[in-house]
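User: Can you recover a sequence for this backbone? Please restate the input before giving your answer.

Assistant: Of course. Working from this structure:
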């Protein structure tokens, strides 16, 4: 059913903020808006907790952007990094300092959503947003946005925050432009205690055979998250890299519990962050560090800024872009210095 055909019964109330997507960006936006006293509805197409293809690496800026009182559900603390180049020239560097933390996304994301709910945000799961409309018969006035759900239900909001990930429909509405698209492939491999012990507190970063590609092993207790990433369009070679990587590590004999892939998209410098009363944040805005493809810190920070209403006008949007831009351009030089 189109929004034009939907009945008045579908329209129940006007929310201050509707947030689309309950990943770190959406949960963070919903939390910030609820804390600011807004009536917030958080919409998520999946049922929670949901799996998300991700290494689950939590760097210092991610930790620093968490809501007050949030206990990070760390699965491991990284004190050593092994570097290699396509399996060769292996070197391990150790540190007494914790370099970064590792979490499981279903658990972490669920906990963030619960924080937003405790702050007053309402959650609806299992609902897919089809589109937003800022003009037309579904929109009662210029201060209101219509959020059209799959199935035709229409919700009304004063502002919409698009946090619907890298294939964002809200991003398409805003006109987000991307510069770099990559394909990440990952397997979650349950391992016996002896193997888990070998990886405890240590990650592996392997520079891959294709330009811009790399692979990783992130240990999470009894499971290793093993993944690779490379430019989109090299699907077969990326898959081969993952297979060879897993084989080289002696992990081919262990059956993965999950095997998945996901695209990452990095924004172009002149990509918009808002259109009218609709804002985007996190992956939906293409806010991702282009080398590591680290995105949780950007999702948390840009979500918080979007939810607290500190964007929208051109001046505020510029400030937001500056605050949310990739950390490699301003991080300190030593790896791990960001955690302190
Ligand atoms: C292989 C890989 C490894 C990565 N490793 C790391 C890492 O170690 N550390 C790190 O910081 N970053 C990592 N990233 C990046 C990180 O996963 C993302 O940047 C992060 O998830 C962005 O959060 P988000 O909330 O913007 O989007 P998401 O986490 O993708 O959440 C978007 C949510 O929106 C929902 N949604 C989508 N469409 C709709 C719709 N139409 N209606 C309703 N709901 C919808 C989805 O179901 C989802 O729950 C990795 C990415 C990949 C691909």
């Amino acid at each position: 059913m189109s929004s034009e055909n939907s009945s008045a019964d579908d329209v129940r109330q006007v929310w201050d903020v509707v947030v689309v997507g309950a990943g770190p960006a959406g949960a963070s936006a919903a939390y910030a808006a609820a804390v600011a006293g807004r009536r917030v509805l958080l919409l998520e197409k999946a049922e929670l907790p949901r799996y998300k293809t991700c290494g689950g690496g939590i760097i210092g800026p991610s930790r620093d952007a968490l809501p007050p009182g949030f206990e990070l559900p760390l699965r491991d603390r990284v004190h050593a990094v092994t570097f290699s180049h396509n399996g060769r020239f292996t070197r391990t560097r150790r540190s007494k300092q914790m370099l970064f933390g590792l979490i499981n996304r279903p658990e972490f994301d669920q906990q963030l959503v619960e924080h937003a709910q405790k702050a007053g945000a309402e959650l609806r799961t299992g609902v897919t947003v089809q589109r937003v409309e800022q003009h037309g018969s579904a929109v009662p006035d210029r201060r209101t946005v219509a959020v059209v759900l799959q199935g035709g239900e229409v919700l009304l909001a004063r502002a919409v925050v698009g946090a619907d990930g890298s294939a964002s429909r809200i991003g398409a509405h805003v006109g987000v432009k991307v510069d770099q698209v990559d394909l990440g492939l990952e397997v979650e491999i349950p391992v016996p205690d002896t193997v888990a012990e070998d990886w405890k507190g240590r990650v592996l970063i392997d520079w891959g055979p294709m330009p811009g590609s790399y692979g990783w092993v992130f240990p999470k207790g009894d499971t290793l998250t093993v993944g690779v990433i490379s430019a989109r369009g090299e699907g077969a070679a990326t898959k081969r890299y993952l297979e060879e990587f897993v084989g080289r590590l002696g992990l081919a004999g262990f059956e993965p519990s999950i095997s998945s892939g996901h695209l990452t998209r990095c924004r172009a410098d002149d990509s918009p962050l808002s259109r009218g009363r609709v804002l985007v944040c996190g992956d939906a805005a293409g806010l991702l560090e282009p080398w590591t493809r680290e995105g949780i810190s950007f999702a948390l920070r840009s979500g918080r800024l979007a939810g607290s209403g500190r964007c929208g006008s051109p001046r505020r949007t510029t400030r937001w872009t500056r605050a949310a831009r990739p950390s490699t351009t301003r991080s300190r030089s030593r790896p791990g210095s960001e955690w302190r």
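That completes the design. Helices lie at 24-35, 60-64, 105-118, 169-174, 193-199, 235-248, 296-307, 314-324.
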